[in-house]
Amino acid sequence: MEKEISLVIFSCAIFVLIFFIAPDIQGEEIKVVYKVKKGDTLSKIAERFNVDVESILKWNPEKFKKTGEEVITEGEVKKKKITEEDFPKIITPGTKLKIPRKDASGKWIVHEVQPGDTFIQIARDYGVTKVRLFKWNRKLFGYEEEEKEKVSKSSCKTIKGKNGKKKKSCRRQKDPKVTEGMELIIFAERPDLSPRIAVYRTQRKDTPYSIATKFDISLKDFLDFNFARREDVFKEGEIVEIPMPVPLILPVSIGSPESGRLVGGEKMPEGPGWFLKTPSYAYGTTETITGVINCIADVQRKFPNTPDLVIGHLSKKKGGKFKPHKSHASGRDIDVSYYLKEEVKKFVKVTPENFDVKRTAEFVMCLANSGDVEYIFIDRYIQEMLYSYLEKKLSKEALDSLIQFPRPDEKRLGIIRHEDGHDDHMHIRFKCPPTSRNCYD
Question: Does the model's pTM come out above 0.70?
Answer without folding.
Answer: no
